[in-house]
Design goal:
This protein is α+β, with helices and mostly antiparallel strands. The protein contains 3 helices and 3 strands; from the N terminus they run αβαβαβ. Helices cover 58% and strands 14% of the residues. 9% of the residues are buried.
Length: 113
């Protein structure tokens, strides 16, 4: 029985440092990811800092109902800020917004603002 207890203790001692090393690696990955994301954030801030006249906008109107649509299509409408039929919103012309518009194009009227 004493040999079994020693074996269990040794196994526990070996696993504990491995977990700490894993946590350190994860922390290093998070820091690297945040540093890599920093330039993208800086670009978004620069785009947001542009005057309103320089930012291209789209005027989006929902002309068909969300009832009976796929959940992802409803989510796209919500992401664009559309709640009800015949509501018009202005969104910034970004690839993300264009993707949502393209996904639910059959429900929308789109104009350049």
């Amino acid at each position: 029985m004493a040999d079994e207890e020693k074996t269990v203790k040794k196994a526990a001692v070996k696993k504990a440092p491995a977990k700490k090393a894993g946590a350190k690696k994860a922390a290093v990955k998070k820091v690297a990811a945040s540093e890599a994301a920093t330039p993208a954030k800086a670009e978004k801030k620069a785009a947001a800092a542009k005057p309103d006249a320089a930012v291209k906008r789209l005027r989006v109107t929902m002309v068909r109902s969300k009832n009976g649509r796929l959940a992802t299509h409803k989510a796209c409408a919500a992401g664009l800020g559309l709640r009800r039929m015949h509501q018009t919103v202005e969104v910034i012309d970004t690839p993300e917004n264009r993707g949502m518009i393209n996904k639910i194009h059959y429900m929308l009227n789109v104009e350049e603002a």
